[in-house]
């Protein structure tokens, strides 16, 4: 399982520290300046102004985050471009497999929630900037997801593994970091915010182990991208960190329900992926 974390063994610790600091400066420093500058220029906030312009402003920081993660991988850590996301060239079939599987589980979970809480979900009519918003989401969300996956599932755990070669600890530490950057999200204001934190931690933990066992980011990326696209385009919720003109909106936000639903769906998803891998081994040996 540690094979994925043992890449670039000749790279010194100093380069790893420089890489982490450079990414954080680009994301939190330059990215924040870019996002806040665009919000000021477009006169938008979380509560006021165009949701499209707010989305673009927020994701300006993620574009810099993405560029910095790729730059340090290639130029500081000397990672081959073809192996940027794993131990072999990108496996599209595994990405598509996870994306379609998780999208299906999200749709199924939403249908069940609609039956249980029929008054909570409402249809949102198309808005004037809806098409432009859809285009922006489809272009920028993969960049956000790719940046987060490279940083939290590759750079951070590999750096921690250099300090203490225990793969489980490296994944747990990276999951805690992923949880930490979501602490300012609006849903953290609920009385049971610890369950929201539990959701983010469990999501990151399962994604981290998925990367190690699969020796690549493809499935974790598919899972993560399906989650974000579903929230941006299909079903938004009341305390969402980004205002989205999704097709449907739910007023039912129960951290306990959401955590239990996610844990169950993740268990089902993991079981299906394990079954698919078992069949693949039987066929190809």
From TrEMBL:
GO biological process terms on file: CAAX-box protein maturation
Keyword check for Transmembrane helix: yes
Transmembrane keyword on record: yes
Regions crossing the membrane: 12-30, 50-77, 98-118, 130-147, 159-181, 193-213, 220-237, 257-276
Superkingdom: Bacteria
Name of the molecule in the record: CAAX prenyl protease 2/Lysostaphin resistance protein A-like domain-containing protein
Domain CAAX prenyl protease 2/Lysostaphin resistance protein A-like intervals: 132-230
UniProt KW keywords: Membrane, Transmembrane, Transmembrane helix
MF terms (GO), sorted A to Z: endopeptidase activity
